[in-house]
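Researcher: I'd like a structural prediction for the single chain below. Treat it as a standalone chain; there are no partners to consider.
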Amino acid sequence: MSAPEPMPTTSALPDSDPLDLFETWFAEAREAEPNDSNAMALATATPDGRPSVRMVLLKGHGTEGFTFYTNAQSRKGEEIRANMHAALLFHWKSLRRQIRIEGPLSQVADDVADAYFHSRSRPSQLGAVASDQSRPLDDRATFVERYARAEARFEGGEVERPPHWTGFTLTPERIEFWLDRANRLHDRRVFTRNAAGDGWTSTLLYP
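Model: Treating it as a single chain, here is the predicted structure.
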């Protein structure tokens, strides 16, 4: 009977720039995940601390932060406007990895929201016009009828972005990487932005 292989004693998560590490992992996820590698859980909360969470799609990222788009009159939009802080979670099951990101939110400029809105498919644009997202709906036929009216209204022309349909960017203050390893001796490393906002400190965490 062969002896068990010794367990690694060093971390597989480097103490490096967390945004560079995110970019590496995200590129690998785009290759490995069969559907929506840019899907992320977005957690928001009311001013009195009642949380809610849902899946959204990452539509931009870089040194400025992580950007997604939504109807600002939806439940999440109202919670964002009332409490401009949120948390994100990426979970890539095929890679057995996850990333948690926390920080304040800011609304994108109108021209940025316009550009992204008009990059979407026309049916998606019309759906955004027709939907009172998160509001009670008496019957699905009502929604279909509103979609048809929006389609007729903008026939032959550009679909106008509703002013309440916009984007938000989360500026990361804390980023935590989790990597599955044998015997549930997982790797976790958390990065925290320093007070000056121009660098990061990091430490390993017990799994």
